[in-house]
Amino acid sequence: MKARDDAALGAFWAQALGWEISSEEPGVTNLEPPGLVYPDPAAIYIDLVASAEPKTVKNRVHIDLATKSAAHQAELVARLTELGATPADIGQGDVPWTVMTDPEGNEFCVLDSLYDETGPIASVILDCVDPQTMLRFWSQATDWPVYKVTDYSAVLRSAAGVGPYLQFLRTPDPKTGWNRVHLDIRPYPGDDLEAEAEKLRSLGATDIDLSGSNVTWMVFADPEGNEFCLLSPR
Questions:
Q1: Where is the VOC domain (predicted)?
Q2: Model confidence over 105-116: pLDDT tens digits?
Q3: Is 182-234 a CATH 3.30.750.80 domain?
């Protein structure tokens, strides 16, 4: 997640999720659940990276927060508001979840007891034109099996049946510019990075040339042009 102030935004999300906070280098704030031993399918990480680029459009990638009941939802919304989140109207209409933005304007949803076994993050949501195409690519890219498919959405989840869902939601909104929030993939310990990169290309990923950038990871775009990173195994 790009951030104007990675430390401040990281502090918000650490308190919102009850996660631990660290920093691997200046301009990067890392969040992870307490006690997590990598790799663990029960959770994901969030990394916030400092960027001077302003947020100008609705994010195509956002997270949904889980609650266990309507009362829990109301309590969480109140606590997030105290932390600096703001209720948001993105044209959702009369829905049972609450749409909010974090202190830098990134959209997220607080669900109403639809999920109670995922941890604090219920789902990572990607807006897309064709959920089925995205499902085929990302299921093979992550080795996550299909959980559910409808005309307007497609959902994946870890084969272990734990942790957040990954959902592709049909939307008419076009993609404009680089995504402010994106996915990172990290191969398992012992995997070959180049072999993983070739696998992604064979599935339909395209390389994004970052010549001149001092980065140690590979950057790709999925079949709908959403940027993502392939990190080194660890």
A1: 120-233
A2: 999 999 986 666
A3: no
